[in-house]
Amino acid sequence: MSDFHALKISDVQALTPNSVTLTFDIPDSLQDIFSFTAGQYITLKHGVNGKEVRRAYSISSAPSSGQLTVGIKKVPNGTFSVYANESIAIGDTFEVMPPEGRFVFEADNVKKNVAAFAAGSGITPIMSIAQTVLESHPENKFILVFGNQTPNETMYLRKIQELQQQYTDRFIVQHLYSRSQEDNALFGRIETSTVNFIVKNKFKEVDFDAFYICGPEEMINTVSNTLKKNDVSEDKILFELFTSSDTEDALAEELDGKTQVEVIVDEETFTVTMDKKELVLDAVLKQDIDAPYSCQGGVCSSCIARVTEGKAEMVKNQILTDGEVAEGLILTCQAHPLTPTLKVDYDDV
Q: CA torsion, points 163, 166, 168, 171, in degrees to nearest 10?
């Protein structure tokens, strides 16, 4: 389940002065394993400065393209993002986990109107989703609201313009720039007024089937809350965080004692004794158990497991639905054990 596969870089392209795309060569023997749904991500594992680093990056290419491409924006002082933008070359090999993620669009034969709000590098999964929406039905419409500092820093700008030419009446883009005044673009950031302008003014006649939101946590919360105030049902709103604000772990302060945890990974069973103040994933990794994980910050879904005995509570959860939590699913990177014994199964998810 958590197996990585060695893949070579087949292409490296600069998108902006501070972002690149990496395309991976997928051997015939791994084509099925690395097939993906629009919106999913892959986890990369690589040694940087003598230390193993894992990072999750959304796939920007459409499933129909036959390519596996991710976009990476340089983060100031970022370990892997700086390395990716400055040092990676064609022919380099990386350990890559098969695609996963729930922020997806699954194509069917039903006409759909879809809108997306993206800021900065949040555009990467939206690129895959937009292309898939547009090509999957001749009447599908996609509205993109895309915020950046300047056009020069806008990832995939050329590809977006190409899609606009290809789907003139069905792919409509509203750019926003916070540091540049541009023709046919709004000035500022994506905020409440932006959402209201889109749904109550510019596209008030459009009945949207889904809204995809990707970017900083504050922007996601603003867009989501504004859509709900405009009577958009929660099941039509999908979002994915790339980074999350720090959350104080007050729960850990309330816990005392130890828990014996039985862990099932790849059909193997391990036993770990841990302090309840620890997070389950941290305790598992300390024992060199090869549990799946990526961000360790509660913003991806790599570390999901099912509690089959005992109880655990998450510090924060922005991924699992209430129904999934009720069924016993947890983000192990956010979960503290509450009972003397706990059984978690990474295979049963």
A: -30
